[in-house]
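Record type: monomer structure entry
Structure origin: computed from sequence
Chain ID: A
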Amino acid sequence: MVAASLKLLSKMESASVPSNEHASTTRSNTNSSSVRAKCDPAWDHVTEVVKDGKSSYRCIHCGKSYKGGGINRMKRHLAGIEGDVAACMGVPYDVRFQMVENLKEISKSKEQTKRDQEASNYSPLEDSPEFEDVQEITPRSFPLRGRGLGRGNRSGPSNFPPRSNLGKRKVGDIDNYFAPRTTPGAQPSIKSVLAGKEKKWRVDMAVARWMYDACIPINVVNSSYYQPMFNAVASYGPGYRGPNYHALRVPLLRDAKREVQLIVDSHRSYWAETGCTIMADGWTDTRHRTLINFLVYCPKGIIFIRSVDASDLVKDAINLSNLFDEIVSWVGPANIVHLVTDNAANYVAAGRIVCGKYRNISWLPCAAHCLNLIFKEIGKMDHIAKLAERASKITVFIYNHVALQAWLRTRKNWTEIVRPGPTRFATTFIALGSLKEHKHDLQALVTSKFYVESRYAKDKKAKAVVKIILDNQFWNDCHVIVHIMSPLIRLLRIVDFDEKPAMGYVYDGMYRVIDGIKKIFKDKKRLWEPYVNIIKDRWDNQFYRDIHAAAY
């Protein structure tokens, strides 16, 4: 023990008082390193200016100058690695690539040198009996790991793991106490902090190129599964390869279906506790097939059950009731409170048969469909049909001439005119409201020098359209009709909203609509009666149910 201590002391004295030979060696190494520095490839793109004994470096590509940091800092400038220096915006691509590769080689050589030093610093003398009594005192608040831990008395039990296990830990031991690095608000990793804007830009561009190439709609980023996908990829680490065509088409699709089935099964318990509503939605696809989608609603959410191709089915009351009966049996008759279908006579009769068989189930027509039929019947009134026809001429004329559209789009705050849909009758009145908002822009167009001197002004159809646009009575009629129908449009948006139940708003909304129409016409019966009769006829005979009053 004493001999080892004397040997260590002699080494320390020799290190503190260097000899002349040692000093000369140091100077020679310094000179040789400065010579090597001038051989660095970055010097071909950097000029050094020495003033008052201080050096500054100037980039020949962008002209920026920096003081201190040496050629390595300028190399990072040329390589575009931001941090302690700004990236060069004028460096050629091949030069930047050369600088990046050179920095990578230097980093690898430094790591290799560090590993060699760590290997050479280890001495087997630490395990010799002479060092048994030497212990390193380590605070209890810090973990004991690495080389140089005290072993205590070899004859007694050891409080530390063997050397081969030091520095290792079980997977998940520490990860359970920290949120994933991609979780919002989580502590970022050192690597992510040091990653520059350019690196993130490359990742973003890789995602963007894939979406553009595959023609994926941009609004997919609003999906609740979008960010979790990147979180999972980041947690996997480098080397992840995406699933191929077969994996997405067969095994992963099968697993996703199994997951959805588990979600459906989890909802079944809520159906028994709170009751549920069965919704039947009939529609026709682009191949002219008649499909009926069945969904179940409960306070926890909406679940899609199945879709039935009814193209070859005679959709009479008996066949539809048998189809509904299958769905009721699968969900459980005791769990169902409510059945919602379209307003067609065959669906009404089928709903009546099902409710007669199961006394605890009440049938209701679709509120959105009922309101759409009210819009359809009001739209058939003579003065409204003529008004919609005149409005349609304006819209067709504008959208058939590209030059007119281009002129209108130069107007401040211009938005596209809504065009009526063939099956959504409410869009007729929405289009009238949209056209009314563009009144001044349209009148400015047909009175502008651009239009008067164009070839369009001489056309007979164009003259008829100009006459409509400049007719103040047309715009007054649009204003009145939009004002009458706005309460109904507002109610339609409420009942067609998927985020929260709308049952309690139907009863109150219908009476607000009727009272609003009467107030618009100042209680002149001959004016409001045609509109109110249409609404009351649909409401009293088909739409109104006791459940609406109960929900209200």
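Annotation 1: The chain has four domains: 40-121, 173-242, 259-365, 372-551.
Annotation 2: DSSP finds 22 helices and eight strands in the chain.
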